[in-house]
Amino acid sequence: MQRITQQTSNQSSQNTTLVPEAKAALRKFRDQVATEFGLDFTGYNGEKTSWECGKVGGEMVRRMIETAERSMSGTTTTTRR
């Protein structure tokens, strides 16, 4: 299997926002999910464990995928697990 990667010379990190206008909404979403888990992600986050960051990030991705799937299927009902 061949691995395909795309790199640009002026991009120092792969963790970039593809739609810069969405950055504030993503930050608000992250803070909302973190609060639901009893975590505070406002301000400096360097002391957070990889488990805490992964838990919040994983839940964000799960919810975004669920939203996209509902959008594709035309379903509007929200189900929380």
Please provide a written account of the structure.
The structure is a single chain. The protein is mostly helical. Helix content is 47%, strand content 0%. The chain is built from two helices and no strands. The termini are far apart. The model has no long low-confidence stretch (mean pLDDT 83).
Descriptive keywords:
2 helices; mainly alpha; globular; single chain; 81 residues
Question: Concise description?
Answer:
By secondary structure, the chain is mainly alpha-helical. The protein is 47% helix and 0% strand.
Percent range for β-strand residues? under 5%
Q: Structural class, from helix and strand content?
A: mainly alpha
Biggest sheet descriptor: none
- Tally of helical segments: 2
Distance between the termini: 36 Å
Q: Characterize the quaternary organization of these chains.
A: single chain
Mean pLDDT: 83
Low-confidence stretches: none
Give me the count of strands.
Answer: 0
Shape: globular
Written as H for each helix and E for each strand, in order along the chain, the element string is HH
The Cα radius of gyration reads: 16 Å
Estimate percent helicity.
Answer: 40-55%
List the topology elements.
Layout: H1 23-36, H2 50-73
